[in-house]
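User: Can you model how adenosine-5'-diphosphate sits in this protein?
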Amino acid sequence: MQLTDLKGIGPAAVDKLKQLNIESVLDLLFHLPMRYEDKTKLTPISHAQSLQPVLIQGEITKSYVIQGKRTILVCEVADDSGFIQLKFFNFYYSQKIKMQTGKRILAFGEVNHGMHGLEMIHPEFWLAEDIPPLTDRLTAIYPKTEGLPQKRIQNAVAQVLGHLQTGLINLPELLPKDWLEQATLPDLQTALHDVHQPSPDVDMARLLSGRHASQKRLKIEEMVSHFLALQALRQKRQQHQAPVLTLSAAQKQNFLDLLPFTLTDAQLRVLHDISTDLCQAVPMQRLIQGDVGSGKTAVAAGAIFHALINGKQAVLMAPTSILAEQHRLTLAEFFPDNEMAFLSGRLKSAERREQLARIADQAQVIIGTHALFQEDVVYRNLALVIIDEQHRFGVHQRLSMKNKGADKDLLPHTLIMTATPIPRTLAQVAYANLDVSVIDELPPNRQMVNTVLLDNKKMPQLADRIQAACKRGEQAYWVCTLVEESEHLRAKAAEDTYEELQDWFPNLKIGLVHGRLKDDEKTAVMADFKAAKIQLLVATTVIEVGVDVPNATLMVIENAERLGLSQLHQLRGRVGRGERQSHCVLMYQAPLSQNAQIRLSTMRDTNDGFKIAKTDLKLRGPGEILGTRQKGAMQFRLVNLETDKDLLDQAQKLAQLMQKTHPENCQAIIHRWQRQAATLAKV
Ligand code: ADP
Ligand code: MG
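Assistant: Here's the modeled complex, given as structure tokens:
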């Protein structure tokens, strides 16, 4: 059944409904009311209270127009119990003519105590023969859109509910009946009727807070569909074969001996998870979560080593060319004897051709940016893909990487690494298709980054700090945070700051890096900074993720109030990477908004990524945090991840149960809750 099959819904209304994200009859059913009105009973006028709108019925005793500053139509109504004035400030004279003395009138509105006793301002009303019979259900009020009257939506939903009842629309129960009984939750039909047409004795507070059993049931079904959809994604990959990569204990030791430090227990544990996966013939789908500075790169190197030992190719992809370049340098140190290739979007075509040829032939370790995913990149025998800092990617990357030769039909193992520490409940939703390992420990002897807030006006105080750090042989970042969309303006602001700082610190070697530089220019600046040839690096937020220069111990962030918490945490993570005490100065422009105050004081008070993420979640909401990453997958119709997170466990268990006991319903549930499921099957 199509929307246009409903009475009162023509092509124009369909367009309007689209703005509400309603494209099918099913969407209409899942378009839940925001509140309800009680038009089930008449209230005697004298009992009418002013808190809730009420329905009154009486006889018109008089109607007249008052001319004054505003023209007012007054209609006086009486019933057996009392008397009330209905007032209209905008009206047609035809309306006045209809309101004849002696006519019956039904009015719905809030009651006020006015100068002349009780009054209703602009009530909804019906006259004489137009008075409808009382309903026995509450009236739902829906979120609506310009140009589509509430009545039209109500009427459309009512038709659909009617068709459900008569069986003209078939919407089968997909949750197991015994499970529903055990959880004391209603079946689908009941739930839909309950939310759209609740009975007057419903627990209204509960309904309005979205916690009524019927709402819970619908939300759980939506969550189940989300879990099943991600699970289906996972299973689809698992149907493919992946190369079996072996690693002996001696080989593992060889890798550990390569490292300039001893891995932490957490790193070892995570590396063990990965090695175990790589020995399987199913593609690994694992996520590594580890706070900034927890040492994810070394773990990635371990995985790469594992692939190399088996004579296979490994890819490491980073979100920025600066980070990719840094990884190239780090891995070149770890694996001096292995052939490397590097691919970023900005290579000249001759160089790009050369790198593509290397990737197709002798390269063993391949590093780069998104460019690695392009169609024309063909690998010789790719066995492992590592994606670093994946939270930086707008939309989840399709892992379409082509092998040639004997490995053509094998999918590579994939490992995703992120520093975004999201609370467990959210991780559960966002990463339901991945195995998750957490590096929950920092390398030894790390000190908290000492963070201070400094009003822009006190900028001069900074000069001493910077001089002192550089005198000790340490280095500093100066981050410019113009939030302009234009890379050009951001670069300009950084250039201005760069020149200003050169005036301030004529004795220091100062560098500048921003997004407008060519890749090789960026590389040169970063290499100079790493080699300590630059003491103070002026940068835009291009250095936000991953950059690792342990000798840098001071970070200044200009106008820190402009940045979100996760970004500040990432930026600050560029210092505090060695054993020396590091400092972070968050400059701000007073006065601060309350939200900015919370962000900055959170940064001052803690270094703990999980605590910061929790506050971030409170300030921004889960949609903001996850929404851009896993578009589609994260868009719920009914579920609010913040307020409904206590239902997640139940839903996840149910999804697992259904895969075992009701596999035939799983696909249908996914289909039902996906946007594309456009029309309902006609019986
Ligand atoms: P992130 O998890 O943020 O990617 P990195 O992998 O860049 O962190 O590591 C941060 C710094 O810590 C690097 O300088 C790295 O060499 C160092 N490091 C990593 N693991 C250890 C360890 N087990 N012991 C000492 N230093 C380590
Ligand atoms: Mg990193």
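A couple of observations from the model: The first strand starts at residue 35 and ends at 37. The longest helix spans residues 213-238.
User: Helpful, thanks.
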